[in-house]
Design brief:
alpha+beta; four-stranded mixed beta sheet; 4 strands; globular
Amino acid sequence: MVKFSGRAAARYAVVLCGALGLAGCVSEPVQTPTFYQNMAQTGAVVDAQTAAQMISQYRRNNGLGPVVADANLTRIANVQAVSMASAGNVKASLKKENALATRMASIGEDGVSAVENVSGGYRTLAEAFSGWRESPNHNAVLLDPNATRLGISTAYSPSAKHKVFWSLVMAGPQKTN
C-alpha cells in the first residue's frame, strides 16, 4: 500500500481525475440514426432500406404486409422530387408529365397498382413519416393494401420555402409477362 502526504494525495487526485476526464473525450463519435439525418443539404440521399423498414413495421402494426425498397420506384420518385425542388413548389407534381401513371409506364410498369405521397418541408425521414401518418390522405398511401414495394426520394432546393421535397411511391407486385 502506498501512502501519500496531504499535498501528494491532492496532486494524485487531480492527475487521476484529469486522466479519467480525458478518457471520456476519446469515446466513439455518436452517429445520427439514418431516419434523423438532415435532408436539407445538397447531395443528401434518403435511405430507402430504412424507409422500407419503418413503413413495413407501421404496416404490420396495422395488419398489412411489409414493403421492400425498389430501385426503379426510387428512380421515378426521384424524378418527382427533383421536379418539385426545381420548381420550388409541390404543385409541380400536378404537371401531366409528372403523373404517377406516366412515370410508372416509363419503367415498364403501366397497369401496376401504385400510389404516391408528395410533400415539402420535412427535414428528416422521421419527420416525413410522422407527418404522413397524421394526414388521412398520406396515411392511406402508407397503408395501401396492394403495396409490396416502395421508392422514396428527396430533393433539396436552398431557395425554396420548403427546402426539401419528398416523393414516396408505393406499388403492388410487378406484373409477370
